[in-house]
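Justification of resources, computational component.

The compute hours requested in this renewal are based largely on the per-chain cost of generating structure records like the one below. Each record pairs the submitted sequence with a full structure-token output. That output is archived, and it is also reused by downstream analysis tasks.
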Amino acid sequence: MMKKIVLLALFSISVFSPHSLASEGPSLPNVQTVDSVDLSRYAGKWYQIAFFPTVFQGTCTINTTATYGIRPDGKISVFNECYKPNGKYKSILGTARPVDSSNSKLKVKFFWFAPAGDYWIIDLEPNYQYAVVGAPNRKYLWILSRTPQITGSLYLELLKRAEAQDFDVSRIQLTSTLLPN
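The structure output for this chain reads:
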């Protein structure tokens, strides 16, 4: 059963601080992203399956989704929405932009005064049915799907792949798909 969730920037990413997204240093190998991302295929609605809890997502932990769209200026619109445990709906609109030609590394921004946060696509199913997104410092991780649930075996495989990149998967929480009574 699904437990808690949170808002993923880009998909539930609200506000990042630049120092919290800094690299962990030379002791760990660099986080590897996918080779390339077709942003028009990546666009659309994604359901947050699991996540590392974050301060900026707060208690936004139920039915979390992110919807991405390609804007005329080449940036990506990011619309995150969720419910809090008290049943209150929350949403936020932001933008993302690729930082390299692979489109696998993006910068996401939700407030004009806030720094942009890293959104690195580290795993992507060939038909764009699931994705794993993290940050180079390994403090953030989201498992996303085109459907509200995935199989247990796929979930465990995605955790295994994230762990192989030195993400501390003991921190992961499942996203809740149930609204409070």
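Residues 1-25 have pLDDT under 50 and may be disordered. The chain is about 10% helix and 35% strand.
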